[in-house]
Amino acid sequence: MIKYSLIFFLGLTCFSLIAQDDLLSMLEDEQEPTQIFAESTFKGTRIINGHSVETRREANLDFIISHRFGTLNSGSYELWGLDQSNIRIALEYSLTDNLTFGAGRNSFEKTYDGFVKYKLLKQQTGIKNIPVSVVWFSSITAKTLHRFDEVKTNLNDKLAYANQILIARKINSALSLQVSPTYIHYNLIELDETSNNVFALGIGGRYKITNRLTINAEYFPQLSDKGGQYQDAIAFGVDIETGGHVFQLQFSNATAMIEKGFVGETKNDFFGGDIHFGFNISRAFQLKK
Amino acid sequence: MSSAQRLMDRNGKIHFFSEAPLENIEATNKQALAALDLSNGKIAVSMLMKGFHFEKSLMEEHFNENYVESDKYPKASFSGQLDEFDASALDNITDSLQYSAIGQLTIHGVTNDVETVVTFKSIDSKISVRTQFWVKVDDYDVDIPKMVISNIAEEVLVTAQFSFERS
Questions:
Q1: Rounded to two decimals, what is the model's pTM?
Q2: Alpha-carbon distances, residue A177 vs A15, A39, A125, A129, A258 (angstroms)
Q3: Residues of B in contact with A20 (CB under 8 A)
Q4: What is the DSSP string of B8-39?
Q5: Interface confidence: ipTM more than 0.90
Q6: In this structure, are residues A198 and A264 in contact, taking their beta carbons and an 8 Å threshold?
């Protein structure tokens, strides 16, 4: 009996000594298990031309200016495309962490665009495991460039719609991949175009070189072709993050910066050197806490 | 060594602030864990880096992603000792009671010795504990690129505030 008591007593002393010395580890054991969300799957709300699964948080207003210059193979007279530029100016506001509305004006074909983007699923581990983030994206665009022929058009004829489901996985802290099934409908098509509908599969990804620098790539193969004159959009770029800004530089055969344009109406041949240099700059404003 | 001699706070507040030319950098964590062992004056604090919330959400994202690398180093902690601590003194604090403390502060996987003064106050049935000290960002291998160095102060003022229920 005494022997057992002694063992019990020694055991108790040892236990309390360990416990006492390790107040911090006792404390760490108290930490409740937390749900870990995959943050910053991409640095920007665009991979390059197309939207990424990123949405900004509640009450964030992004002011985004995007430029696409002329093609690199236009020669020294055009300063390799820098003499020409088309621009999109946009405001994008996040009503909640998951819901963003945006509106922009594109100098290319004098097109207005409006979109809604909603985060359906967030990649996370913990009590609940979700392997991917899923975002729904829809936009409506109005091309207001005057026609050079005699065809009379109404507002309805000027509209096109783009719908996407963006599915992405942050595989590790460096590598993120995304697929973006895309459906676009054009209310009016030209005589040399074959279909009002375009289906495409977007594929994109980023690789982090340093904490503030990533290289990105993106490809939108069309599953149905609107007409033989069109090409699939290809783009390569880098994201540079400096404090509250994300600066994106890219090379792409796409002239337009909105889905209905770069997915379905890219005419340039990337491998023929019809490549536009371009950049996106965004500045974030927090409108309320 | 009964657990009654250990006081614990699950909602400790850690706040840091630094004044920088372009914009002040400020965040609060309201879910820090803190423990005080009355038998020997040992103190421990642990918190999740993702528990720090900023006014600007993009700043919060960059804090986690680029500066403290929260995925790699999810926690910060402090483990220390109050100098000449006497638990019975806590029972009759008139105005406030101060102890100096030394210990190890771990942030971003780097541990440094820290010395600070801890103030104890008695508020109703609770003991309020507060301390404030400067942290040099560079000491914890937190990398600030030259491009943004003028945006971010190199020293931040950390304020910790705990409230322990008397046992």
A1: 0.82
A2: 49, 14, 18, 18, 20
A3: 1, 37, 39-40, 42
A4: EEEEEEEEEEE--SS--EEEEEEEEEEEEETT
A5: no
A6: yes
